[in-house]
Design a protein that fits this description.
Length: 115
């Protein structure tokens, strides 16, 4: 069984090759297979959303691209796990600086100068 799946419909990609062609599409949903979302280097939190430095900007992460650094991501795309990691990172950041409003907020401008 192939360890490669379409990012959109999660259909198994069946091929003897390790990587899809630049314009190859999923037979089930017609999504491009050679796209950022199917690449193992796609990292939403990285610069340019790519782990490989100095890659060209790609406007549509699910659209066709001609990136020569592309390597098919192995395994089923796990968007829930990625969302969980992103939420944990945001919560940790919020914990550092706090998202809570100050409780001693003056009611008016004149209250700022009262002792």
């Amino acid at each position: 069984m192939s360890p490669y799946y379409c990012h959109k419909c999660r259909t198994t990609w069946k091929s003897d090759r390790r990587s899809p062609g630049f314009k190859e599409i999923c037979p089930a949903c017609s999504a491009y297979l050679h796209c950022c979302k199917n690449c193992r280097f796609h990292t939403p939190t990285a610069h340019n959303q790519c782990y490989v430095p100095n890659t060209d900007y790609v406007a549509s992460r699910s659209g066709l691209n001609f990136c020569e650094e592309f390597e098919f991501r192995k395994g089923m795309p796990d968007t829930k796990e990625e969302s969980k990691k992103l939420k944990e990172a945001k919560d940790a950041f919020s914990g550092l600086f706090g998202d809570q409003e100050q409780q001693d907020t003056p009611a008016s401008f004149d209250d700022l100068f009262k002792s």
